């Protein structure tokens, strides 16, 4: 089981590494937000409420990838723009979460931050997931890198997620917390960075 000392070292690494990355990525990140603003005709940075460590709610930051559909495509509907698809394919839309890491709301590695109604509803030993901060990446994130495509093939995506994907993610993330080693974090970071290129 991850210890208080390991959590402290994990936080020190997260804070230091995220600051270093932001020094190099701030200008490219700002340009991506500006491009997304032009592409979606809305401010290119947005936030959503997610469940964090100890089930505390916080706002996660992302680059906007959806824009309003044109007339005839559904009133009030939103579609992923080509630029947004590019961002999602490389997960560059998640880069603003480096600020969440600096602010101490997230970690580089951990369970992905879920919408209310999932992680905050965990019971029993499953609540061990809430001992760590949600991550920019993690073992379950890497396994389900193509989750959107898998769900799109289901007749009832929401039911499939709750019945199959979500329980599997819980088990994967429980194993991560219960058998935590810092070397695992480095492995998951390396595997995730290789997907950004």
From TrEMBL:
<protein>
    <submittedName>
        <fullName>Sugar transferase</fullName>
    </submittedName>
</protein>
<feature type="transmembrane region" description="Helical">
    <location>
        <begin position="12"/>
        <end position="38"/>
    </location>
</feature>
<comment type="similarity">
    <text>Belongs to the bacterial sugar transferase family.</text>
</comment>
<dbReference type="GO" id="GO:0016740">
    <property type="term" value="F:transferase activity"/>
</dbReference>
<dbReference type="Pfam" id="PF02397">
    <property type="entry name" value="Bac_transf"/>
</dbReference>
<feature type="domain" description="Bacterial sugar transferase">
    <location>
        <begin position="10"/>
        <end position="195"/>
    </location>
</feature>
<dbReference type="InterPro" id="IPR003362">
    <property type="entry name" value="Bact_transf"/>
</dbReference>
<keyword id="KW-0472">Membrane</keyword>
<keyword id="KW-0812">Transmembrane</keyword>
<keyword id="KW-0808">Transferase</keyword>
<keyword id="KW-1133">Transmembrane helix</keyword>
């Amino acid at each position: 089981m991850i210890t208080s000392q390991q959590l402290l070292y994990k936080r020190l690494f997260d804070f230091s590494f995220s600051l270093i990355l932001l020094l190099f990525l701030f200008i490219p990140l700002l340009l991506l937000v500006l491009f997304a603003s032009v592409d979606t005709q809305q401010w290119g940075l947005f936030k959503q409420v997610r469940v964090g460590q100890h089930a505390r709610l916080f706002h996660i930051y992302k680059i906007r990838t959806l824009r309003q559909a044109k007339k005839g495509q559904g009133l009030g509907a939103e579609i992923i723009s080509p630029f947004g698809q590019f961002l999602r394919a490389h997960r560059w839309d998640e880069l603003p979460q480096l600020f969440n890491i600096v602010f101490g709301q997230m970690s580089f590695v951990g369970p992905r931050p879920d919408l209310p109604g999932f992680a905050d509803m965990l019971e029993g030993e499953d609540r061990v997931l809430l001992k760590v901060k949600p991550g920019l990446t993690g073992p379950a994130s890497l396994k389900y890198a193509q989750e959107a495509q898998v769900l799109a093939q289901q007749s009832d995506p929401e039911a499939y997620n709750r019945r199959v994907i979500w329980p599997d993610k819980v088990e994967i993330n429980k194993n991560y917390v219960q058998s935590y080693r810092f070397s695992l974090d480095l492995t998951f970071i390396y595997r995730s960075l290789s997907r950004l290129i």
